[in-house]
Design a protein that fits this description.
The longest helix is centred in the middle third of the chain and has 14 residues. This protein has an 8-stranded mixed sheet, with helices on one face. The protein is α/β, with parallel strands linked by helices. It contains 7 helices and 20 strands.
Length: about 400
C-alpha cells in the first residue's frame, strides 16, 4: 500500500498450514539480484488463535516465537479501463485493503498514454489504463502488483516500458514482467516485518504462440511448456532467498469454476519444489481451494477492480494469509481467510450478508479438502471432495 506499515486486527483466521521453505534461509536485507522491498509490520492488536500442526518427533514445542506474525493480502484482476478510474473503485474497501501488512493485486492492463505503443497482435479485448489511475492503488493501500498476464503486452513493449516507469515513479513494486527475460522472471523478495517473502508470478495464457520454443515475448514471465524451466529457476531462487515462497499463475479457462487440468499440473509441480502457497487467477470467477501436500492452493481469485465484472463474475474476495512462527525449531504456519466483496462493473464493495453466503457457497462447492466457515476461515475438510473432483 506504499504506507508499508499496517496493523493486523482481525480476530479470527483459518486453519494452519505448515510452510515448507527450506531451513537455514539467509534473512539478510540484501540479495544478489532479486528485487527487495522492506515493509514494516505492526504487531496485531488481537492475537490470532494458535492452530499449529501436530508436533513432529524431536521438535521442541516450548520455545517462544522469535518473529511476530504478518498478514499478506491477495486480490484478483484489476484494470482501470472504460472510465473506471473516475468511479472510485476502491473507496468502499480501502479499510479492508489497508489492513494486511502487504497487499498485492493482478494489474491486468497496459498503463500508458494513448500515443504510446501499438497492439502487436489482433485481439478482441485490449486494455489500456491512464497513468494517473495508478494513484488509486497507493491511495487504497495496495502495495504491489503482478504483471504476468495476457494483457500486459496489449500495446507492445513500448507501453510496457511506460507501465514499469509509472510504477517505479510511485514506488509500487511489481513482478512478472520487465524489459527483458531476466527482469521478467526476477522474483520479488519483500521484507515484511521480520519475514522475507518471495513472490514469483507467471502467465500460462496465451501459449499458442510458444510452440516453436522461441521466446518472442521475453518481457513477460511465462509458464508455457517451452519455458517452464525458466519458471522453475525463478521459483528456486525465491525459495533460496525467502522464508515463505508464493507462486501466482495467470491461467485456466475463463468463466469456468473448476481449475483446468494444466493448472492442476502446475500446482503439483511447484508444490513439489517446496512453495508454501499458490494463488492463481485469470478465469474471471472465484474458484475454490485445494492443497498439494503442505502447499495451499487458491485456484482463482476472480475479478477485482475489473469493469466487465457482472453477476457471478462480480463475486470476489480479498484472500488474507497470516504467517506466524510454529513450534521452534520448525516450519512457519500459514492461515487463510477470505474477506468477501462484490465488484460490479469494477467498483468493489463489501459483500452484504446475503452476498457473503452466496460467495462462500460458490467457493465451497468447488473446493477440495477445504471449506470456509461462516466467518470465511478455511478449515480442513477431508470428507469434502467438491464438485471439481
Amino acid at each position: 500500500m506504499s504506507r508499508f506499515a499496517a496493523g493486523c486486527c482481525w480476530s479470527v483466521f483459518l486453519v494452519a498450514f505448515a510452510a515448507c521453505s527450506p531451513p537455514g534461509v539467509n534473512t539478510a536485507a540484501t540479495t544478489t539480484r532479486s528485487s527487495t522491498t522492506e515493509v514494516a509490520a505492526t504487531s496485531p492488536s488481537t492475537t490470532f488463535p494458535s492452530t499449529t500442526s501436530p508436533s513432529r518427533p524431536g521438535v521442541t514445542t516450548d520455545v517462544s516465537p522469535t518473529r511476530g506474525p504478518i498478514v499478506l493480502g491477495f486480490a484478483g484482476d484489476t484494470s482501470f479501463t472504460d472510465g473506471l478510474d473516475a468511479r472510485d473503485p476502491f473507496g468502499a474497501v480501502t479499510d479492508l485493503l489497508s489492513k494486511p501488512d502487504f497487499m498485492l493485486v493482478n494489474l491486468e492492463t497496459a498503463v500508458a498514454a494513448p500515443d504510446i505503443g501499438r497492439a502487436p497482435v489482433a485481439k478482441p479485448f485490449l486494455f489500456r489504463s491512464p497513468p494517473a489511475s495508478l494513484d488509486l492503488l497507493t491511495a487504497a493501500g495496495i502495495d504491489a502488483v503482478s504483471l504476468a498476464n495476457n494483457h500486459t503486452l496489449d500495446f507492445g513493449p513500448e507501453a510496457l516500458e511506460q507501465t514499469l516507469l509509472e510504477l517505479d515513479t510511485r514506488s509500487i513494486p511489481h513482478v512478472g514482467a520487465g524489459v527483458d527475460e531476466r527482469a521478467a522472471y526476477e522474483p520479488l523478495i519483500v521484507e515484511v516485518g521480520d519475514w522475507r517473502v518471495g513472490i514469483v508470478t507467471l502467465s500460462r495464457v496465451p501459449c499458442d504462440w510458444s510452440a516453436s520454443g522461441e521466446n518472442v515475448r521475453p518481457q513477460v514471465a511465462w509458464a508455457c511448456p517451452p519455458f517452464v524451466e525458466l519458471a522453475d529457476a525463478a521459483i528456486a531462487e525465491a525459495l533460496e532467498e525467502s522464508d515463505v515462497t508464493i507462486v501466482m499463475v495467470h491461467g485456466g479457462q475463463e468463466g469456468v469454476l473448476c481449475p483446468s487440468s494444466f493448472m492442476v499440473e502446475l500446482n503439483e509441480r511447484w508444490a513439489g519444489l517446496g512453495v508454501d502457497l499458490v494463488v492463481n487467477g485469470h478465469p474471471h470467477v472465484v474458484q475454490g481451494m485445494s492443497s498439494v501436500g503442505s502447499t495451499l492452493v487458491v485456484n482463482s481469485t476472480g475479478n477485482f477492480a475489473f469493469p466487465p465484472a457482472r453477476s457471478v463474475s462480480a463475486n470476489s474476495g480479498i484472500f488474507l494469509v497470516e504467517i506466524s512462527e510454529g513450534p521452534q525449531p520448525g516450519p512457519a504456519v500459514l492461515e487463510l481467510r477470505v474477506e468477501p466483496v462484490r465488484a460490479v462493473g469494477g467498483v468493489v464493495t463489501p459483500a452484504t450478508p446475503e452476498e457473503t453466503v452466496d460467495i462462500f457457497d460458490q467457493i465451497n462447492a468447488v473446493s477440495s479438502g477445504w471449506k470456509l466457515d461462516e466467518f470465511g476461515r478455511a478449515r480442513r475438510a477431508p470428507e469434502h471432495p467438491g464438485t471439481c473432483g
